[in-house]
Amino acid sequence: MLMMQPTYILAVRSACHVACQLATRAARRAARRAAIRLAVGSALLALPGLPLAPCALASQNVSDLLTAGDRESAARRSRAALDNFERAVQAEPTSYPALWKAAREAVDLGEFESNAETRTTLYRRATDYARRAVLANTNDAEGHFQLSRAVGRTALAANPRDRVSYAREVREEALKALQLFPKHPGALHVLGVWNAEVMRLNSFSRAMAKAFLGGQVLGSASWPEAIRYLEASVVVEPDRLVHHLDLARVYRDAGRRTDARAAYQAALRAPLQDANDARYRKSADEELTKLR
Known about the structure:
single chain, Serine Threonine Protein Phosphatase 5, Tetratricopeptide repeat
């Protein structure tokens, strides 16, 4: 470092000399300062091993963690993906992609978690991340979709009475996602399942739902609406296994058994892409066998 210093001083003086020759007395001082900044800045950029500023390090770290999380998610390793995304959230608490991706992975982990307490904790974490994502960027569909998904999974894991209390938010957040992105396949899927779950409620639960949601909202639910939304999700993402699986279930419960068989078969042909697709495929095979 010390051996290189005279070279930098000469560079500064040379730059100052040229600037001073071309400037008036008032401009000379400004030119001298500019030349010093230019020369010193160039010298510093040339020095190896200088540490980055903390904010630059944090941004680089978050970017690396997001990349690692995406890689793990694509490999259907949700636990490792969640670890990377949560570390990204710790490094940058308002990182929108880190928040909604952490919510997604937490839901995936919770869906087939056998321990009820662990499952509840994962869904609670997912809901918290999704709410924070919406606060970080309320104008993007993904945060609203992940919030509807997290709350919806919490609802599906609850008993019928508690399930009703989550229904309004699930529907509202999915509709917000569609307002921002009319062909969002996940939001279309959520609304299809929402309609189906309302139709599957028993008379007591439907009475509770009517009191909580209001007759107009509850009255909008129907099997045709469930089918319409899920068919739309299949059109947007024809290779997504879970779209075909839930469409098959709706066809089955709506009495359209031939269509249900075709949808189950489509689910069995779909590639494994998402974290729980192997389990979804197994469910499709078992449910198709029972349907026959």
